[in-house]
Design brief:
With 380 residues, this protein is an alpha+beta fold. It contains 12 helices and 15 strands. The protein has helices at residues 5-17, 60-66, 94-101, 107-118, 129-137, 139-154, 192-200, 213-216, 232-235, 318-338, 344-348, 354-375, and strands spanning 22-25, 37-39, 46-48, 55-57, 79-83, 86-89, 184-186, 205-208, 226-228, 245-255, 265-268, 277-280, 295-304, 313-314, 340-342. α1 runs parallel beside α12, α4 (107-118) runs antiparallel to α5 and α5 (129-137) runs antiparallel to α6. The radius of gyration is 23 Å and the shape is globular. The two termini are 18 Å apart. Bound molecules: flavin-adenine dinucleotide and sodium ion. Flavin-adenine dinucleotide is lined by residues 1-7, 25-28, 33-35, 50-55, 212-214, 229-230, 248, 312, 344-346, 352-355, 357.
């Protein structure tokens, strides 16, 4: 149930390793879940329809697995930020610090400066997100790069957000501005949808789109194991209440110029700019022949999800965690009694990067699904 990376990985393993037939259901009209991408019709530029997706991993097994289905470009992700009409390098690094304070610092000088400014508040005593951030990086850098952006992401003033929302705020005392630290990084050479389609391309796999699980669940044979990658609270009829999510709104525009911002992602840190960032999709694939007189930009806005919105990021309040506890108990029972397993970001209410969704699906296959078929073990 669900044709995102989690569902497709399970389907592909069961089809190719166990030689069993798999039915994949998805309520959308395309496969791939949130990693789905499609060419923007006027320009042919590949747009990641549910937000920009950058593949990166340090997990060798996942890296070897995904390379069966696609090759990767040598794209390296970098992000910049505009604040008060100046452009800065992110994540906060030595270049950001030199730019922001308008002078050159050695790594040691920068470290001393940030430590002094962070000394204003003791991290252990931080009562909210603002205090926690100041305790880690000091007030000036917090106000420039964290305050406005965070407020727009959460539609909540950082003084009203729990300190626990941020665990760390790493500052790099080098000029390294690569966004990811992982061993492998790149974008699928012929796009996400080609990659995802090759995972589903097996004679044992049948994909049915435009099919909502909740409309057909009564017609499914009772003894066939199900891997459910949709919202766990919905599965149980919201018995313990609805889990909270943030969603994103995307505003896509084709501009009659060859290059809008010179890079793939620009954050907007000012509070009074309503969007959080702009993606310019041509820059994800500099190796491709895209039109030179047109470009596609997507503005991203963040807000709390209401019913009917796409759930994107778990909010994870203490109330959410209590509800999740209850749903986990129900899920354990469901596995034992009805052979239903819950996985993926919606099925576990966890933010998972793609490599994590794939890795966790491979583990579910090894630890639960294969033993069920090979040794007749129970699924729970
Ligand atoms: P999904 O991809 O959400 O798949 C679940 C599928 O289940 C969907 O296709 C859905 O239609 C289907 N479904 C749900 N309910 C039903 C139902 N009732 N009946 C039938 N089908 C149903 N990861 C990275 O590694 N790098 C990134 O840069 C990155 N950027 C991201 C940006 C955004 C905005 C978001 C939201 C996520 C990003 N991710 C990124 C994470 C990535 O999207 C996930 O790792 C991946 O989607 C997880 O796959 P999944 O199969 O668990 O879930
Ligand atoms: Na401090």
């Amino acid at each position: 149930m669900g044709s995102g990376f989690f569902g497709l990985t399970v389907a592909e393993r069961v089809a190719s390793q166990l030689d069993k037939r798999v039915l994949v259901l998805d309520r959308r009209d395309h496969i791939g879940g949130n990693a789905y991408s499609a060419p923007e019709p006027e320009t042919g530029i590949e747009v990641h329809v549910y937000g920009a997706h950058l593949f990166h991993t340090s997990n060798e097994r996942v890296w070897n697995y995904v390379n069966q289905f696609t090759e990767f470009t040598n794209y390296q992700h970098r992000v910049f930020s505009i604040y008060q009409d100046k452009t800065y390098s992110l994540p906060i690094n030595l270049a950001t610090i030199c730019q922001y304070f308008g002078k050159s610092f050695s790594p040691e000088e920068a470290r001393a400066l940030v430590a002094e400014q962070a000394g204003e508040i003791d991290t252990a005593e931080a009562a909210n997100l603002e205090e926690k951030a100041i305790s880690l990086i000091g007030r000036p850098l917090y106000e420039a790069f964290i305050r406005g952006y965070t407020k727009k992401q959460w539609q909540t003033d950082p003084t009203e957000l729990p300190a626990a929302v941020i665990a760390r705020l790493p500052v790099r005392y080098t000029f390294d501005n690569r966004y990811f630290n992982d061993t492998w990084e790149g974008l699928p050479v012929d796009g996400y949808t080609a990659w995802l389609s090759r995972m589903a391309d097996h004679p044992n796999i049948e994909v049915r789109l435009n099919t909502d699980y909740f409309d057909v669940r009564d017609e499914l044979p009772a003894d066939v194991p199900t891997v459910f990658t949709g919202p766990i609270d919905k599965y149980f009829g919201y018995e313990a209440g609805e889990l909270g999510w943030r969603t994103l709104d995307f505003e896509t525009e084709v501009l009659p110029i060859g290059d809008f911002q010179g890079t793939s992602v620009m954050n907007y840190a000012d509070e009074d700019v309503p969007f959080t960032r702009i993606h310019e999709f041509r820059h994800f694939h500099p190796e491709r022949k895209y039109p030179e007189d047109k470009t596609v930009v997507v503005r991203e806005y963040s807000r709390f999800a209401e019913s009917g919105d796409e759930p994107y990021y778990p909010i994870n309040t203490p109330e959410d965690r209590a509800k999740l506890e209850r749903y986990r108990e129900l899920a354990t029972k469901e596995a034992a009694e009805k052979r239903v397993l819950f996985g993926g970001r919606l099925g576990t209410y966890k933010y998972l990067d793609m490599h994590m969704a794939i890795g966790s699906a491979l583990s579910m296959f090894d630890n639960r699904i294969r033993p069920f078929f090979d040794q007749g073990e129970s699924l729970d």
